[in-house]
Write a structure and sequence with these properties.
single chain, about 170 residues, mainly beta, Elongation Factor Tu (Ef-tu), domain 3, SH3 type barrels, 2 domains, six-stranded mixed sheet, five-stranded antiparallel sheet, 2 helices, 13 strands, elongated
């Protein structure tokens, strides 16, 4: 497990005074400001964040060291990370997305299905994007209790009961 967890991303500038559009990946979206300073994945930069208002797809925020529209635009697509020890402990049946990436996925009989490439959420439910051995395309597996009854972080494996036809 990584010491850093992605908690948000910058989607571009807002206005001409250096504010940014911020998308939060935290369970309580406003809580992203509680985990500051946030860093870049490689640790090369650190930012304090002050949320100034909500927008349709996130927040508008001021960041330390960002004072112009050009500086804010340069950060478009930048992911922001918080140290794991600053984040709340999760119940046994909840997971940070970062902890699922790279886990091996098996069916109930023990046959390998693939490896978790990413965790996605397009509004309806979480999906595990799996890299399937011998295939060039990925498969999106619903991340629900019915489809994924077992996540064993300690052994690095997930047991899934995929819907019929998903891997055809």
């Amino acid at each position: 497990m990584s010491d850093l967890v992605c908690v948000g991303a910058i989607s571009g500038a807002f206005g001409v005074h250096g504010e940014v559009r911020l998308k939060s990946f935290t369970a309580d979206p406003l809580a992203i400001a509680d985990y500051t300073p946030l860093t870049l994945e490689d640790g090369s930069g650190s930012f304090d964040i002050q949320i100034t208002r909500e927008t349709k797809n996130g927040f508008v925020a001021r960041m330390t060291g960002v004072g112009t529209k050009e500086e804010a635009d340069a950060l478009r697509g930048t992911r922001l990370f918080a140290p794991r020890d600053r984040l709340p402990q999760l119940p046994d049946d909840e997971y940070y997305y970062a902890d699922l990436i790279g886990l091996s996925v098996f069916d109930a009989g023990g046959a390998p299905l693939g490896e978790v490439k990413s965790v996605q959420n397009h509004g309806a439910a979480d999906l595990l994007e799996l890299i399937v051995p011998g295939q060039s395309k990925t498969v999106l597996l619903p991340f629900t209790q019915a489809v994924v009854p077992t996540v064993d972080l300690a052994s690095g494996r997930i047991v899934a009961d995929p819907p019929e036809g998903l891997f055809d």
